[in-house]
From TrEMBL:
Record keywords: Signal
Name the UniProt record assigns to this protein: Solute-binding protein family 5 domain-containing protein
GO cellular component, one term: ATP-binding cassette (ABC) transporter complex
Keyword check for rRNA-binding: no
Highest taxon of the lineage: Bacteria
Keyword Nucleotide-binding in record: no
GO molecular function: peptide transmembrane transporter activity
Residues covered by the Solute-binding protein family domain: 118-485
Length: 567
């Protein structure tokens, strides 16, 4: 359904690296040394996998997240954030688990089985829900919940602020089957990615019907609170002062007993996470490819680094509604004025990880079907950038900053606080784009306001951050790249791109789907709203005795299986 956004900087935040690099770079001996590693397959797992039966019962997991969630409805536009996903997906139902290779299998705690068939030219999917499944208020989970979620997420009512309607918009009906635990969905058009619905792997868990019943409940029902849950853990408390969210086992849970006594999510800046980890204040966090963090935590004797080929990437988003960036020629000029090789080297230096400029918005280099569709827009060419800016009416006229109608080509480059990666990237691009006659106005804003007050409402010109991908290349991207996508922060797009993403999500033939995804990507490059820079390695730090959590690759997290080894 969507990408999850990770605030910047850390990679931009996540994902860049704490970037101990500036535009001038750093010495060759900084970082880990050695030969750079090829990214592992996205099917790789680095979670210290163990049979839960062999883990000890009890213990607390202190987990660092980079923002304190406010909107706990993941499907609401403002809830589309990685920190929110981490918390909510431990508490709400997911009908599906994702295996390391991206295959979707039923989560038997909620879904016994599901099957798709064609009848009368219509696609019909029948779900058999687990009759033991109940919400924390005692209400059974039934077809009514699926019906309410479909109605809310279909975007047929514009009052619902939805990230993306992909898939849900094509459901013409949800009806009761032989009983309340059998749901029958009928699709207007074939939809190959139907397993993307109602699942945590696509960041679309199931919410209670009463909180999806109307737009007000959808927006405010989970705002600053989590009123109802249904999973191995339930809410223990939200402490705004301490910036923590605590989860505890739900004694009414009908599935496998969770191993931990509690999970405590601690919101903190990414630059403070390594020290907190080294001091034993937290047990697990995502390094977001931060070089500085990698160096700090590598020497922690009680911990270890866990890696996988993450399906995530770093990028720059350009605000197509900005008066200065509304002309695609200007955005394309900035693409060509960006030396992505420099960004890759600075972002990954010290991680012993080989990287190249990313040539695709939807597929990673270690995924089947990947193709570099960037063309000349992915090539650093300052002279071509200058020509495009001239054609767009932005002239130097003997000065150092281009002007049009007496106004300078000065762009608001918005970054969040506490993110050294963003600061360094801002430095790099300030110098790089100055060569093309573009001036950057670096604006540092509170990390918890980065999306809600700046990126989402469009109060910026350029913003660096990362996208956390899902196993669904087309469906998982539509909210970000479709013109009506709730997560389309660039406010750019085209009818052709919408059509290609739609076709890719419907194709039952993988080869055809991948060809269509690549055609969509070629069009995304021409739209020039998002400039991919590089794939981010998935690198996490965890206490050595922490099991079943780490670098997940394409697999989702089974929270009830997380625990500590006995030794």
């Amino acid at each position: 359904m969507k990408h999850s956004r990770v605030p910047l900087a850390l990679v931009a935040t996540v994902m860049v690296s704490s970037l101990a690099l500036t535009a001038c770079g750093t010495s060759d001996d900084e970082g880990g040394g050695g030969t750079a590693k090829q990214p592992p397959k996205t099917t790789a797992l680095g979670i210290n996998q163990a049979d839960p039966a062999q883990l000890k019962q009890g213990g607390t997991l202190n987990w660092a997240i980079d923002q304190f969630p406010v909107q706990f409805n993941e499907m609401e536009t403002d809830g589309n954030q990685a920190a929110t996903n981490a918390v909510v997906e431990a508490l709400l139902p997911s009908l599906w688990h994702s295996r390391p290779n991206g295959e979707q299998v039923p989560d038997k705690a909620f879904l016994l089985d599901a099957a798709s068939r064609t009848e009368g030219g219509k696609q019909i999917v029948t779900y058999h829900l687990n009759p033991k499944a109940k919400w924390s208020d005692g209400t059974p989970i039934t077809y009514r919940d699926l019906e309410a979620n479909v109605r809310a997420l279909s975007s047929k009512d514009p009052a619902y602020k939805v990230g993306s309607p992909a898939g849900y918009e094509d459901v013409s009906s949800v009806r009761r089957g032989k009983d309340d635990h059998e749901a029958v969905l009928t699709f207007d058009k074939p939809y190959a990615d139907w397993r993307a619905l109602f699942g945590a792997p696509n960041n679309t868990p199931l919410y209670p019907a009463k909180y999806m019943a109307d737009a007000k409940s959808f927006t405010t029902g989970y705002l600053n609170k989590i009123p109802v849950t249904a999973n191995a853990y339930k809410l223990g408390g939200i402490d705004k002062t301490a910036q923590t969210v605590t989860l505890v086992p739900d004694p009414a849970w009908w599935g496998d007993k969770p191993k931990l006594d509690r999970i405590v999510f601690h919101a903190m800046t990414t630059e403070s996470m390594p020290a907190a980890y080294a001091n034993g204040e937290i047990d697990y966090f995502d390094l977001n490819a931060s070089v500085a963090a990698f160096k700090q935590v590598s020497g922690v004797k009680s911990g270890e680094i866990r890696e996988a080929g993450g399906p995530n990437y770093r990028h720059l988003t350009f605000n197509g509604k900005s008066p200065k960036l509304g002309d695609p020629k200007v955005r394309k000029a900035l693409f060509k004025a960006t030396d992505r090789e420099t960004l890759v080297k600075s972002g990954l230096k010290g991680l012993n990880w080989e990287g190249k400029p990313l040539g695709n918005h939807f597929l990673m280099p270690n995924q089947k079907g990947y193709r570099n569709n960037a063309g000349d827009l992915g090539t650093y060419d300052p002279k071509a950038a200058a020509r495009l800016l001239d054609e767009a009416g932005w002239k130097l006229d003997g000065g150092t900053v281009r002007k049009k109608g007496g106004e300078e080509l000065k762009l608001r480059f918005v970054i969040p606080t506490g993110q050294p990666a963003a600061k360094n990237e801002a430095t790099i691009l300030t110098q790089m784009w100055a060569q093309a006659g573009v001036r950057l106005d670096i604006r540092t804003v509170p990390v918890n306001e980065f999306f809600d007050k700046y990126v989402t409402p469009g109060d910026y010109d350029v913003a660096p951050y990362s996208f956390s991908r899902t196993p669904f290349a087309a469906t998982g991207s539509s909210g970000t790249y479709a013109r009506d996508g709730g997560g389309n922060d660039s406010k750019t797009g085209s009818a052709e791109l919408d059509d290609l993403l739609d076709k890719a999500g419907r194709s039952a033939d993988q080869a055809t789907a991948l060809e269509t995804v690549n055609a969509a990507d070629a069009e995304a490059w021409q739209v020039a709203g998002v400039l991919p820079t590089y794939q981010l390695p998935e690198i996490t730090a965890a206490k050595k005795n922490l099991a079943n959590l780490g670098a997940q690759g394409m697999a989702d997290i089974a929270y009830e299986r997380i625990g500590y080894t006995k030794q």
